[in-house]
Specification:
Layout lengths: L3 H26 L2 E6 L4 E6 L4 E6 L2 H4 L3 H30 L14
Antiparallel strand pairs: 1-2, 2-3
Length: about 110
């Protein structure tokens, strides 16, 4: 029933998968996404570790002097960035999983 050869092959496959996951983790860390809201009036750039790298707010938003609108647009742009990072993570992980279902919300240490 138990075959040492099969177990050895399984271990080799697990090691290959582990190497691929480390590579993917590095790729994910270097991802840069731009989340937008208000038809591009607010843009946030995040990296794959969810660190905000840049905030770009169109000057025209300050003319109305409406603090709440600007705050809402920043939140929406941030959430858009998070969604994009999750999509990219899911895409990269699915490329190495070879049909093995891996939860898309699985957080790999980066």
């Amino acid at each position: 029933m138990f075959n040492k050869g099969n177990f050895g092959n399984l271990m080799k496959q697990a090691q290959k998968m582990q190497k691929k996951m480390k590579k993917i983790q590095k790729e994910i860390k270097s991802i840069k996404v731009i989340g937008e809201s208000g038809a591009g009036l607010v843009k946030l750039t995040l990296d794959g570790s969810y660190n905000c790298k840049k905030v770009d707010i169109d000057y025209n938003l300050f003319k109305d002097d409406d603090k709440e609108i600007i705050e809402d647009l920043i939140v929406a742009a941030f959430n858009d960035s998070i969604r994009k990072i999750k999509e990219k993570k899911k895409d990269r992980i699915s490329k190495i999983s070879n049909g093995i279902p891996i939860p898309s919300d699985l957080n790999f240490p980066i």
